[in-house]
């Protein structure tokens, strides 16, 4: 069975910077939301802005 290691803080920051530079802040922010909420890619792809409640966090 293969094991997967979680990304460390430096790798997360590096990926955020790469996405921000190459694709813009929207994709970088989507990456940060996904990492901080521990979402799978399938969860991120179905997430809509209306699903987020920014007032209640």
Please tell me about this protein's structure.
- It is built from three helices and no strands.
- Helices cover 60% and strands 0% of the residues.
- It has a domain at 9-43.
- The chain is globular, with a radius of gyration of 13 Å.
Describe the secondary structure blueprint for this structure.
Layout: H1 9-23, H2 25-37, H3 41-46
Helix pairs in contact: 1-2
Percent in helix: 55-70%
Q: Report Rg.
A: 13 Å
Low-confidence runs (pLDDT<50, min 5 residues)?
none
Mean model confidence by pLDDT: 85
| Strands, total number | 0
Helix/strand order: HHH
| Secondary-structure-derived class | mainly alpha
The fraction of residues in strands falls at: under 5%
Intertermini distance: 37 Å
Shape descriptor reads globular
The major pleated sheet works out as: none
Query: Number of DSSP helices?
Result: 3
Q: Could you provide a short overview of the structure?
A:
It contains 3 helices and no strands. It is globular and about 35 Å long. The protein has a domain at 9-43.
